[in-house]
Please model this.
Amino acid sequence: MKIKYIVLPLILLIITLGSCKKALDMAPDGKLTMDQVFADNDKVGAFLNSCYTNMPAKGTRYFFWMRGPVDASDEAWDTDAEAEPSLVSGSMYNGGASASSHALRDGGWGNTDGNNGNYWAGYWNSIRNCTVFLSRIDKATVLSETDRKRWKAEAYLLRAYYYSELLKWFGPALAIEKVPFNYSDNFSKLTKESYYNVVKFIISDCDVALATAELPWRITTASEAGRVNKAMAEAIKSKMILFAASPLYNGGQNYWQEAYTVNKTSLANLKANGYQLYNNVNFPQTFLSDVAYIGTNKDTHAALYNEYFCNSMAYSSTPVDQETIYQSRDGQGNIWDIDGIGAQDGYKSGTCPSQELVDSYETSDGQPILNLANPYLDDQHLQPNYNSANKLYSATDPYANRDPRFYASIYYNGSKRKCSWSFPEVPQSFENYPASAGNRTRIISTYIGEPQTGIHATTRKATRTGYFERKFLHPNAGNDNPVGGANYKLFRLGEIILNFAEAAAEAGVLDEATTAVNEIRSRAGMPDLPSSLSKEDLILRIRNERRVELALEENRYFDIRRWSLPTGDLSKTDRWVTAMAITRNSDGTYSYARRTVRANERLNYTNKWLWLPIPLNEANALKASTGTDWQNTGW
Model:
């Protein structure tokens, strides 16, 4: 049973809603009092369901089937920015946002899908529901004490999750709600807490969940899909203490030793309770088949990486996937149609990986292609600062001998895909003509002038960058094989390992940091990092490893921000995004030249873009009540 409920404004807006005082004592349907709700076992469980209502789908479920923060960072360009410039990406790239109207924050000008958007109001609503639930659960009518304890732990953990999301997006602009706010409260004393204090509050909520024996480490039955678990508590702690220690949020304090200690414990607990990296190809008939075309010579490392992201985690005590900690309850739609190679079905390509992301993949000998301390010699990223120690990379054959994760994640000029293609080939498609529409293997040619998959400045089905996304795309999905996108992995062990590696390196525990990052590299089939790296060089390598391992998973957007100073900006990363402009020569060879995706810069890079703005009416109400300006800098 699920109770419908009034979508209350966020807790802070109640300052202006004094006429609705009785609403807080009413049940969600407006007919039962809260006392009546918490006097009935089924209704108590249903109220807990309301705490789950705003759990996001992430992935492609941002407005109009786009990837939100992925497209707003330097790792990708959204084809809708030109095809539909008034939508989210076009608005972001053109700097068209304000405190009263921000497309990414508001879910595409007020529209949301899969709860990806309207963050401020949505997450505060859920925080309030969790807090109300916690204030009543001890005296509520619950038939099973096991249920009472588990439900209570879930509410604590959900509140921690929503707070962590608000911190990631909005930074230190939050109050802490330990007990429900009421309309009669004196809000003049409301305090804007520091980032660190909110993180400590989040950790305390997670610790309550972790101390509850009735909350499981893993959800093992499909009937409980979407319920939170202890592993998620460790993942939230790992992430948020890392953020608190980072330059943007540490307030000039050094929290790296604490971040190291918390992460070490969280990682050990996760591994002790059955979490491990996805290390085997479990569906070789698909991902190692002759027509999967993942990597070269059926590379098992590339295949298992692609397989992992193309399959949802099963709810079982012994799942094939023991890496995923928490996945969304929602699928990701027909990715081949809206976020893959647009020409396949004739619609749109969506997220196109950037040249900057491609540059981050090392060659197979473990050498970075660029100098990680200063990757480009110019502001526009057109002059790569090559790593002089790399002898394997060739600018005339740029996609040879790369990290297996490159082949598992990106379609590039000359790669192949077998699926249902909706069009017959024309003579201008030299590599593929002649061929009729239907299921067949096609060479993905991305050079200028290729009529189906070539780079183009405005066509929706084209690529803007010379690349297409394949990380989440089943090797052969299409209208005749409708394998949709897997449930999105909000937390996974690979990220926690890299969180620990970064915290350990920053804390000066270089041997443990190196061992951790090498665990990730070993799974990918990449050589270990040398143990002789200095602290500064090791941190650079770990940051690049995050960029590669967590590519297109929403981490980069937040990473480059937290690594910035409060007075900094994103001009070195987000101001210019580049493409590989490929020319097909008359002899069938190709020439490669870098260019910016468009002639003018992206405008979402200045200091204020480090955070989302608090909605204008909320910021005004808070300032009027407390005398303090809660709005984020620049908005």
